[in-house]
Amino acid sequence: MKKKILVVNVNWVGDVLFSTPFLEALRAHFPDSFIACLVVPRCREVLEGNPHLDEILLYEEESLHRSFFGKLRLIRTLRAKRFDKVYLLHRSFTRRLLTVLAGIPERIGYAVKWGGLLLTQKVPLPPSPLHKVEYFLGLLPPENRTVSRNYTLQIGEEEEKRLARRLQEKGLKQGERFIALCPAGNWDQKRWPPERFAALADQLIRKHHQKIVITGEKKDIPLGEEILSSMRERAVLFCGETTLKQLAALLKRATLVISGDTGAMHVAQSQGTKVIALFGPTHPRLTGPSGTHPQVILRKEVGCNDDPPCYYVHCPDNICMKAIQVEDVLDAIERG
To answer: Is residue 135 part of a domain?
Structure first.
């Protein structure tokens, strides 16, 4: 009988992308097993089409499963699946308790706080912070961590076609070269100044004769418009125009992606596109691009963001990001 394995995943798109090498390693270790993943709805798209999964289950913690009775419904669903083993990538006590109540006999996770009491196999926490890819792989024995650190994000043919149509509507022909800029960040201090992106874009258009596409979510439209208004040349604003998979298709077509420490940077890496990543208050050792795809990291030590990184969300100066000059990025491009 096939072993049935559940993976309880984390809550953010970037972190779920970081979990895909773990899923690959798990499949390699249990090639004939049934492997399912429990994930929140906003991260489902990351895992759809993943070749190492047999099923995706949704934990709708903000709606269907929010109440006590909703959680009982989820427990019944998990119990009916009769899982033999669960790997808990999430540190949540609630999620661990759900797997206990679902009757999953083997429960493997990191020994964090009271949640360690609910595990049957407690993995000691790493002695120092690790990149999330390595952190997740650490739940497996060392001999099972031999997979690459490349992310897996599948794009469907239909999503590719939709993206191609949208690009054509924006004036980009099939096969036309362009550089993608990803200026957003989930907090302002991780962002390179918009006027630097504008100056860089103008230089790239003049010197490299490539079109520029500015990407982002709908909420990033004002940022994209600010960059456009500061430019002398013309660029294509593509904020709020794509699903996650369409964004992956867009970044796959790009000749180069220039990004801060954002999810888009990792999406570009999942498609094998070269990335120039701009880091300041965070550290590439912990949240940088992973794997063997081409990448360049630009980060300036300014005395207050040394290792460990500062993560100072309310920094009034943002000097670490301002220390990266337009010429630094151009030099990185010209070095190839």
So the answer is: yes
Residues 6 or more apart whose CB falls under 8 angstroms from that of 251 comprise 180, 215, 257, 264, 267, 268, 271, 273
In the 3-class helix/strand/coil scheme, how is 181-215 assigned residue by residue? EECCCCCHHHCCCHHHHHHHHHHHHHHHCCEEEEE
User: Do 105 and 166 sit in the same domain of this protein?
Assistant: no
Q: By the 8 A CB rule, do 243 and 250 touch? A: no
Q: Which residue blocks in the chain are alpha helix, DSSP H?
A: 13-18, 20-29, 44-47, 68-81, 93-101, 132-137, 157-169, 194-208, 221-230, 244-253, 263-270, 284-287, 319-322, 326-334
Q: Rounded to the nearest 5°, which phi and psi values hold at 134?
A: -70, -35
Q: Please identify which residue in the block is written with the tokens 């990185």.
A: 332
pLDDT, tens digit, 9 for 90 and up, residues 78-126: 999 999 999 999 988 999 999 999 999 999 999 987 767 899 999 999 9
Cβ(16)–Cβ(40) below 8 Å:
no
Structural domain boundaries, residue 297? 157-334
Residues 121 and 182 in one domain: no
> Which residue's entry shows tokens 């952190």?
135
Q: In what order do the strands lie in the sheet with 256-260?
A: 236-239, 211-216, 178-182, 256-260, 275-279, 295-299
- Asked if residue 293 is part of any domain, the answer here is yes
Phi first, then psi, for residue 137 (nearest 5°) are -65, -25
Residues 51 and 185 in one domain: no
Contact status, residue 310 vs residue 281, Cβ threshold 8 Å: yes
Nearest 5°: the CA angle 243, 249, 251 is 105
pLDDT at 68: 87
pLDDT tens string 168-214: 998 888 888 899 999 998 888 889 999 999 999 999 999 888 899 99
Residue 177 Rama label (left phi>0; alpha psi -120 to 50; beta): beta
Residue 222 has pLDDT above 70, yes or no: yes
The predicted model scores a pTM of: 0.89
183 & 307 share domain: yes
